[in-house]
Specification:
With 241 residues, this protein is α+β, with helices and mostly antiparallel strands. The protein folds into two domains: 120 residues, no CATH class; 108 residues, 4'-phosphopantetheinyl transferase domain (Ribosomal Protein L22, Chain A). Helices cover 28% and strands 35% of the residues. The strands form three sheets. Strands 1-2-3-7-6 form a five-stranded antiparallel beta sheet, with helices on one face. Strands 8-12-11-10-9 form a five-stranded antiparallel beta sheet.
């Protein structure tokens, strides 16, 4: 399947922790740069924070190695991007579990057991980026579908050419991307039922999510968001800008 989301311009690695990495831009949003890495958490060590010139956050003091590895992999992605974009700082902070971007920048972070993905754009681009990556879990998607997809949404997804579990995973990821995209505006939790999928273009790998409730005076019920998706080996990536 053609990748209609990511346009890589550079590939690199930092073994043994960073197995493969690429950076580039989002095809339908050229102002939005991305970095995607595949990492091996069995090769994680705390010394890697110093190796990659990343501060070790106090919030990770009691975290397990898996959590530390995914945090470092995602911050490495951000470091690469901010460096390429010649930002004043290449450090992404954290406050109350929310990424804190250097002044003048907006971004979004996602990670799984073996992938980390970051997108950034200058504030002047006017984007509200949201990115998500989810690894293939067909049984989990089928068992939990009612938690994130209404009966109408499930009916729409079952009409697609995509295998139904894969379509469910794409919807789950799309709603995660929407949450991340609109967090700076909403600043509070909103659940999966706050938006519904109203259109999927499989040829262009595009989707539309429409709010089913008013989240803020600016984000009223009926507001629509367009995004893109693509598949990467055993994962799906979705993006809203």
């Amino acid at each position: 399947m053609t990748n209609t989301l990511l346009s890589p311009t550079r590939t690199f690695d930092a073994p043994p922790f960073i197995l493969r990495a690429e950076s580039g831009y989002i095809r339908h949003l050229p102002a939005l740069a991305y970095c995607l890495v595949e990492y091996d958490r069995t090769h994680y060590s705390d010394a890697l924070f110093k190796h990659f010139s990343q501060p070790f956050p106090t919030a990770l003091a009691n975290a397990v190695a898996k959590r530390r590895a995914e945090y470092l992999a995602s911050r490495y992605c951000g470091q690469v991007l901010l460096g390429q974009m010649q930002a004043a700082s290449t450090i992404i902070g954290t406050h109350e579990r929310v990424p804190q971007w250097p002044a003048g920048w907006r971004g979004s972070i996602s990670h799984s057991d073996k992938y980390a993905l970051v997108v950034i754009a200058p504030e002047s681009a006017g984007l509200m980026p949201g990115i998500d990556i989810e690894q293939w879990q067909p049984e989990v998607m089928l068992e939990t579908a009612d938690m994130f997809a209404s009966s109408d949404e499930q009916q729409l997804l079952s009409s697609l050419f995509l295998p139904y579990p894969q379509a469910l995973l794409t919807l789950f990821s799309a709603k995660e991307s929407l949450y991340k995209s609109q967090w700076p505006e909403v600043r509070r939790y909103f659940d999966f039922q706050a938006a519904k999928v109203t259109h999927v273009d499989e040829a262009e790998q595009r989707f539309t999510l429409t709010l089913t409730e008013t989240l803020t005076p600016k984000l009223k019920c009926g507001t629509a968001f367009s995004g893109s998706y693509t598949f990467l080996n055993d994962a799906v990536i979705t993006c809203i800008g």
